[in-house]
């Protein structure tokens, strides 16, 4: 098993592939619909995010597909004993509510790396929100990378992968497209979505 240097950042690992498949079955028989494009860089908004179980489903998909991704997570999760685990699987701690330059930091990361897929929950929390955060779109726009929407549908037990889209400068239009793609998916706790 070898690591590729161009295109979608994947690293084949038979054990993790097997673990991802078993995990998806044990979590209720999840399926993956669609295919990630062979792109070296991109932002993946995954919604709806209504439960801690979303992370487990996402982790099993990551293992099954062999993806090397980065994700933003609440800083309080990055403490002993989980800090090493979250960092090793691509986690980047973020203090929510603080203007700490996350967009600029991530744009710099995209500029410095040959491959980077960033996964973000656009709601920014598991709770019901009036409006999604748009930082993921600003990152994609400024870094000039596509957005690949992903929907977690607990009703059908499907992780649905959408087609890549360019954000350009129309953040509102891109937001509407991502919300339309993920809007029919039912979260684990629908009252939070």
TrEMBL record:
Q: Name one GO molecular function term.
A: 1-acylglycerol-3-phosphate O-acyltransferase activity
**Is this entry keyworded Transferase?**
yes
Entries under SUPFAM superfamilies matching the protein = Glycerol-3-phosphate (1)-acyltransferase
Keyword Lyase tagged: no
Q: What highest taxon heads this organism's lineage?
A: Bacteria
Q: What is its pathway?
A: Lipid metabolism
Q: Where is the Phospholipid/glycerol acyltransferase domain?
A: 43-155
Matching entries from InterPro entries are given as: Plipid/glycerol_acylTrfase
Task: Tell me any Pfam family this protein matches.
Answer: Acyltransferase
Q: Which UniProt keywords apply?
A: Acyltransferase, Transferase
- Name its GO BP terms in alphabetical order: phosphatidic acid biosynthetic process
Tell me the protein's name: Acyltransferase
What is the scientific name of the source organism?
Aliidiomarina soli
